[in-house]
Design goal:
Strand content: 5-15%
Largest sheet: 2 strands, parallel
Radius of gyration: 11 Å
Oligomer: single chain
Shape: globular
Distance between the termini: 20 Å
Length: 67
Amino acid sequence: MIRIALFITCFNDTIPLVERFSRTFAEYDAVVTPSAPCAGMVREAHPLPADDYSMREVRRQVAELVP
């Protein structure tokens, strides 16, 4: 069974929110966003705080979510 989630907010730009996002959506096969900017936020902005704070595990989790 394929599980799909709808990601609604685009403003997850801090480590706790990025971690929560990664944990929340880790079990889904696909995450559907309402717009390209929301998808871009996850793809482009979520890895940045993890890099800034040397949080390799968070970076790995985010990388698993994006194509």
